[in-house]
UniProtKB/TrEMBL annotation:
Origin species: Streptomyces longisporus
Protein name per Swiss-Prot or TrEMBL: Uncharacterized protein
Residue ranges, annotated region (Disordered): 168-211
Domain of life of the organism encoding this protein: Bacteria
Length: 211
């Protein structure tokens, strides 16, 4: 036997109305930069290598999204690119599209207690690197798609004519960008060797690799 309190009809009506309003309002299905930063998204060790690798694989142009799954060593296990349809930005629609792409290229990890692979999203678009509501909808969609596919939610990266930017982290660089030609695939996959000594030289190289 189960004991509890039955909600009043007024409360039920109010809850249903609130849920219906939320489902009908795309603005409720987006994340702002502060929410994204507070979500504990894992940082990429070498974001430029990830961006360059995906750029070399998929040659994205504006309105192209690239979703990729990384293993614990940040190697790309699978990736897929697709063109965003001309429709209002809606995190729920983006979630469904991303989930369909993930299911197409890699099996889910829902049987694992904790995710071991991470999904990242690179979106090539017009405009500058500043956050937009469209970016917020992609963030919401990526986070939800990762949950439904048993993956960790990773970085959301924009690619514009000014360069690339990891939103919520403040890391970015001028190349690759939306107009640049892809680097040779082998070069983008192999990081440059770092010096064994520490000091100022190591710090300069570390900053240069993050650009």
């Amino acid at each position: 036997m189960t004991f509890g309190f039955a909600p009043s009809s007024a409360a039920s009506t109010s809850t249903s109305a609130d849920l219906s309003a939320a489902s009908a309002n795309p603005l409720t299905r987006m994340l702002e930069p502060a929410e994204w930063a507070a979500a504990g998204i894992p940082l990429l060790r070498n974001p430029r290598e990830v961006v360059s690798g995906l750029h070399s694989r998929h040659h994205p142009r504006p309105a192209t999204a690239v979703v990729a799954v990384l293993d614990p060593d940040e190697r790309v296990c699978a990736s897929a690119s697709f063109t965003r349809r001309p429709a209002p930005a809606d995190g729920w629609m983006f979630r469904n599209t991303l989930l369909a792409q993930l299911r197409r290229v890699i099996p889910h990890d829902l049987r694992r207690r904790t995710p071991v692979r991470t999904a990242v999203l690179l979106y090539c678009r017009e405009g500058d690197a500043r956050w937009t509501e469209e970016d917020g909808a992609w963030m919401w969609g990526l986070r939800d798609a990762c949950t439904l596919h048993g993956l960790r939610c990773g970085a959301y990266i924009t690619l514009t004519r000014d360069g690339w930017q990891v939103l919520g982290e403040g890391r970015g660089g001028r190349r690759p960008n939306a107009d640049s030609s892809p680097e040779p695939f082998g070069i983008s996959e192999v990081p440059p060797p770092l010096p064994r000594t520490g000091g100022a030289a190591s710090e300069v190289l570390r900053r240069a690799a993050a650009r």
